[in-house]
């Protein structure tokens, strides 16, 4: 019964984490509508995010009376290097939703499903299973419907499409490295060093692209919201939930991010989402379930 309770607890944690991350792009779009730049949005998010994770680390240190395993210099370097892809994901994703609807942006981000299979095939030098191949085909078909590219009435800005695909590619790298780098230290420490690595990318981008004076009002208006929904709540809850659910079930539950993101854009941004797009979204979620369910009978 205890293990079942742990799984339920894990499902709840991953579900809340995925839901909060699903809301993020809508808030970014709302910040854009008020005239804030991508540099201002990402900088405020990462600064507050680092401050929040630092406080969580401090709390854990006091609670555990300094018995927590500390990161070695090698751990720190590896995590910061892995974190650069985290910074790129935020940048590319936010640049994507600047040019295309949020409902399309989240679908492009979900291309991590087939990119992950491809990366795994390259790294492990073996062909994917039939189950994964079927899931990839369903994802691609679902993407055609969900992005509504067969409907000639909609013209999608090519810049948004390119940034969206780049966001998916960097997110795939983040997911692979996050599960393999310095897993022996606490999730709060890992989150902190990955965030610091991501911050180097974000701050470099801000320095290079911010041509107008930096609008510090972003810290009062959107910074805390973006940090909570993007860099503090989702990684902390998912890092706590995934060990309890396992990767398979956790991945299925985290697919909640997709319908939540589309619903938020529909309700708060009045984005039009037609029936064929909803069918595409359901197909992508179905593909994630197929990829992560073990269909082999237990012996």
TrEMBL record:
Q: Where are the transmembrane segments?
A: 12-32, 38-56, 76-96, 102-121, 133-150, 162-181, 193-212, 218-237, 249-269, 275-295
Give the Pfam families listed for this entry.
EamA (PF00892)
Q: Which residues form the EamA domain?
A: 9-146, 159-292
Alphabetical keyword list: Membrane, Transmembrane, Transmembrane helix
Protein's recorded name: EamA/RhaT family transporter
């Amino acid at each position: 019964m205890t293990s079942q309770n742990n799984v339920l607890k894990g499902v709840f944690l991953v579900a809340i984490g995925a839901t909060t991350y699903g809301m993020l792009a809508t808030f970014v779009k709302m910040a854009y509508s008020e005239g804030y730049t991508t540099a201002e949005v990402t900088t405020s998010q990462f600064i507050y995010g680092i401050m929040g994770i630092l406080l969580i680390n401090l709390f854990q240190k006091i609670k555990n009376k300094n018995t927590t395993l500390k990161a070695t210099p090698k751990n720190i370097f590896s995590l910061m290097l892995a974190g650069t892809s985290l910074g790129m994901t935020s940048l590319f994703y936010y640049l994507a939703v600047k040019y295309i609807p949020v409902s399309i942006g989240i679908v492009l981000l979900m291309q991590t499903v087939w990119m992950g299979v491809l990366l795994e095939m390259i790294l492990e030098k073996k062909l994917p299973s039939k189950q994964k191949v079927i899931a990839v085909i369903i994802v691609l078909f679902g993407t055609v419907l969900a992005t509504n590219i067969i409907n000639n009435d909609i013209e999608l800005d090519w810049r948004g499409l390119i940034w969206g695909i780049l966001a998916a590619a960097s997110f795939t790298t983040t997911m692979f490295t996050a599960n393999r780098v310095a897993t022996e230290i606490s999730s709060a420490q890992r989150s902190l060093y990955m965030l610091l690595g991501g911050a180097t990318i974000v701050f470099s981008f801000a320095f290079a692209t911010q041509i107008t004076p930096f609008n510090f009002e972003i810290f009062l208006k959107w910074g805390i919201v973006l940090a909570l929904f993007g860099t503090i709540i989702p990684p902390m809850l998912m890092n706590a939930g995934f060990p309890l659910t396992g990767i398979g079930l956790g991945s299925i539950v985290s697919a909640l991010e997709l319908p939540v993101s589309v619903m938020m854009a529909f309700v708060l941004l009045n984005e039009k989402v037609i029936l064929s797009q909803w069918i595409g979204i359901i197909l992508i979620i179905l593909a994630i379930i197929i990829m992560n369910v073990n269909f082999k009978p237990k012996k």
